[in-house]
Amino acid sequence: MNQSNKKNLEFIVNSGVNYFLQDSPRNWFENEKKSELPDPNINTGDKKRKIDDVIKDLEDHKSNLQKTAKNLVVYDGNLNAKVMLIGEAPGRDEDQQGIPFVGRAGQLLNKMLLAINLQREDVYITNVVNWRPPDNRTPNDDEILEFLPFLQRQIDIIKPKFIFLLGGVAAKAILSTPLALGKLRGKWHEYKSLNLDESIPTIASYHPAFLLRSPQYKKHSWEDLQMLQEKLKNE
């Protein structure tokens, strides 16, 4: 078993999953269809220019969160990704490096992606809020509304096939609902934008930081990841 497969298995086992109910046997570490991955032939030039414009506007935007944060954190990953992952806000490590999901939660996210045969380079990763809130507190409603237009612009530019929401803040912002995450996860939703020709299938799941504190929920996160994997297989 190679190192990648070991990491896949580590997340699956730690999710509390020790059996799988399927109609036929399956090798969970077999290579999936290439259609799961971004198309390297797509010209990224236009997307890059537009994302750079978003970054410039974020840099020019004066937010109270800048007073206590070190670095603006916008995105990581592939501009041609079929999957966009949206988290909450930068933490301490992210604030230091200017890259989303690089701390312990980011390490767990990497394992989660590997469990469905994806890597960070295959997806587009961002957050609802782009500056670290003081003391790692949860962004408040005003801050979510302040940064939501920048997030919506990113979605319009990237045009992902699927959106995977990490945590309650992302679910609340993108799905425009007061419902708790526990009532939203495990099912597909639709993200709609006036600037997109079609709605985007969207699923909400638990934030990796929450899973580190409450590992008993990893099995639910694994179920959500499998739902995404099945969608990607049919692409």
Describe the secondary-structure layout.
Elements lengths: L2 H12 L30 H16 L14 E3 L5 E5 L4 H6 L6 H12 L8 E4 L13 H18 L3 E5 L1 H8 L5 H4 L3 E4 L8 E6 L2 H6 L4 H16 L2
Parallel strand pairs: 2-3, 2-4, 4-6
Antiparallel strand pairs: 1-3, 5-6
Quick structural summary:
The protein is an alpha/beta fold and 235 residues long. The chain has helices at 3-14, 45-60, 92-97, 104-115, 141-158, 168-175, 181-184, 208-213, 218-233; strands at residues 75-77, 83-87, 124-127, 162-166, 188-191, 200-205. Helix content is 42%, strand content 11%.
Q: What's the N-to-C terminus distance?
A: 28 Å
CATH superfamily: Uracil-DNA glycosylase-like domain
Total domains: 1
- CATH topology, what is it called? Uracil-DNA Glycosylase, subunit E
Q: Assign the CATH architecture.
A: 3-Layer(aba) Sandwich
Instruction: Give me the side-by-side strand order of the main sheet.
Output: 1-3-2-4-6-5
Counted beta strands: 6
Q: What's the overall geometry?
A: globular
SSE order: HHEEHHEHEHHEEHH
**Poorly predicted parts:** 17-25, 31-35
For the biggest sheet, the summary is: 6 strands, mixed
Tally of separate helices: 9
Q: What is the oligomeric state here?
A: single chain
What top-tier CATH class fits best? Alpha Beta
Mean pLDDT: 89
Helix percent band: 40-55%
Rg over CA atoms: 17 Å
Structural classification: alpha/beta
Describe the overall structure.
With 235 residues, the chain is α/β, with parallel strands linked by helices. It has one domain: 3-Layer(aba) Sandwich (Uracil-DNA Glycosylase, subunit E), CATH 3.40.470.10. It has nine helices and six strands. It has a six-stranded mixed beta sheet, sandwiched between helices. Strand 5 and strand 6 form a beta hairpin.
